[in-house]
Amino acid sequence: MNDQDNNSKSRAVDSLLNFETVKYYCAEDYEIRCFEEAILKYQHCEWKSSASLALLNQTQNVIIGSGLLVGSLLCAYLVSKGQFQIGDYVLFGTYIIQLYTPLNWFGTYYRLIQSSFVDMENMLALLTEHVEIQDAEDAEDLQLTAGQVEFDRVCFSYVPGTEILRDVSFTVEAGQTVALVGPSGSGKSSILRLLFRFYDLQSGSIRIDGQDISKLSKDNIN
Predict the structure, then answer these.
(1) Phi, psi of 135 (to 5 degrees)
(2) Domain residue limits, the chain
(3) 12 Rama class: left (phi>0) / alpha (psi -120 to 50) / beta
(4) pTM higher than 0.70, yes or no?
(5) What CATH number should be reported for the domain whose range is 2-127?
(6) 149-221 sits in which CATH class?
(7) d(C-alpha 40, C-alpha 28), whole Å
(8) Residue 203: which residues within 8 A CB-CB, separation 6 or more?
(9) What pLDDT, in 10s, does the model give residues 149-202?
(10) Tens digits of per-residue pLDDT, 48-59?
(11) Which of 89, 156, 158, 173 has a C-alpha 20 to 30 A away from that of 61?
(12) Largest CA distance in the chain
């Protein structure tokens, strides 16, 4: 149930964050169907989880009630025979109730533990994700003096064989304002992503105050 809950939430968040892409490809109906399918799977798993928890609790109540009834009858019989005192009967009931009460929470504890394990697995899987953009071994901190930005014959592509930028060169002087103008898909956003080093270049270089950002620490650039 927890896996399906994460899946449905991921589907909803992806669709909302990428609403422009969904709109471009007229995929609203497709995304709705996928989200509906994820919700139905979650509801099915939730029903199974709730039914099994209810069955467990009812079974426990039957066992506890039967055991308490049989034990009480036995104690009452022994009291009538003089083998037990009245205090022994009360002691039996008190101990049994104190013993059985925590058992009612076993199903809930099991569910919480399983849910926590699933979340922990997702967290550990996220920590083992490979980082594509790595700092050089001798990476240095950015020494910002003026703020000049220079693109020198920059070539970049998200998919091999499909270049987004080809031999792009320009210089933005300190204090200068430059506008990037062009149609959608011309690489305006890619230039900003490369400046923050979200991706590495195929060729060329980007320099800030004469310092190649590929040789600088990513944290310091951002």
Answers:
(1) -75, 150
(2) 2-127, 149-221
(3) alpha
(4) no
(5) 1.20.1560.10
(6) alpha beta
(7) 18
(8) 153, 154, 155
(9) 888 888 888 887 777 888 888 888 888 888 888 887 777 888 888 888 888 888
(10) 888 888 888 788
(11) 89
(12) 104
